[in-house]
Amino acid sequence: MGVETDVVDIILNGKAVQAQSGTTILQAAAANGVAIPTLCFHRDLSPTGACRMCVVEVARSRTLVASCHTLVTHGMVIETHSAKVLRARKVIMELMMASHPDFCLVCDKANICEMRALSAELGVGVPRFRAKKRFYQIEENPYVIRDLSKCVLCYRCVKACKEVKGANLFSMARRGFEMKVVVDDDAALDKEVCRDCGICISHCPVGALVWRPDRFRKPTDSARTSCRPLVIKG
């Protein structure tokens, strides 16, 4: 019988390294000093794999795999920044930007928008593609301003509300282009439904959720929350 070990041997970007057994490629890469870009992933939440920004190339795999929920295995050969991977990430970003409203200059998220920072990192400016844009009426209550036109469907607000706060107020509804984040059965975001905890805001990577009392103030790198301080960046 073989002896079980807590580590596995992998090849990461051409270098032989070790990783903890049971960890994801994303975690193993980070532990070895390799940063893989993410958008839907957040360290406080269970992985979703919705944005596909964290895709990597794994030897003998027919397709690129999402590193946020793919576990490392012994002997795995991984390329995190190959030409194939970078092309895929750029196309993914261009597709996201094509359907995103062009509000960057007047967006409350400004330079702390994770999507904006990632597009700059990937060298993506004006997308090559044209896509139908979704526009929703802006909702607000005394605490939260919600603009679903800017939502990238990353699930982070849904999971943060459920997994961090335990409130489970948000969910995803509809399919395809009509998919959106809803409260209850698509109820209004009134003061009785969503109060002043700020968990959803602190996890939103873009300007879809904004803390109303701080609107038009100089952006900072954190969001206010009654539970505990949470850094916006995933």
Could you characterize what this model shows?
The chain has 234 residues and is α+β, with helices and mostly antiparallel strands. The chain has 2 domains: 7-81, Ubiquitin-like (UB roll), CATH 3.10.20.740; 90-231, Alpha-Beta Plaits. 20% of the residues lie in helices and 18% in strands. It contains 5 helices and 12 strands. It has helices at 25-31, 83-98, 114-122, 156-165, 199-203; strands at residues 7-12, 15-20, 55-58, 65-66, 77-79, 139-140, 144-146, 170-173, 180-183, 209-211, 222-223, 230-231. Strands 2-1-5-3-4 form a 5-stranded mixed β-sheet, with helices on both faces. Strand 8 (170-173) and strand 9 (180-183) form a beta hairpin. Helix 2 (83-98) crosses helix 3 (114-122). The protein is globular, with a radius of gyration of 19 Å.
What is the strand arrangement across the widest sheet? 2-1-5-3-4
Mean pLDDT: 87
* Domain module count: 2
Distance between the termini: 41 Å
- Give a short account of the largest sheet: 5 strands, mixed
Strand content: 15-25%
**Considering DSSP H and I runs of 4 or more, what fraction of the residues is helical?**
10-25%
CATH topology of the largest domain: Alpha-Beta Plaits
Broad structural category: alpha+beta
- DSSP strand count: 12
Alpha-carbon Rg, integer: 19 Å
Task: Label the CATH architecture of the largest domain.
Answer: 2-Layer Sandwich
Molecular shape: globular
| Tally of DSSP helical segments | 5
Short description:
By secondary structure, this protein is an alpha+beta fold.
Lay out the secondary structure.
Blueprint: E1 7-12, E2 15-20, H1 25-31, E3 55-58, E4 65-66, E5 77-79, H2 83-98, H3 114-122, E6 139-140, E7 144-146, H4 156-165, E8 170-173, E9 180-183, H5 199-203, E10 209-211, E11 222-223, E12 230-231
Parallel strand pairs: 1-5
Antiparallel strand pairs: 1-2, 3-4, 3-5, 6-7, 7-10, 8-9, 11-12
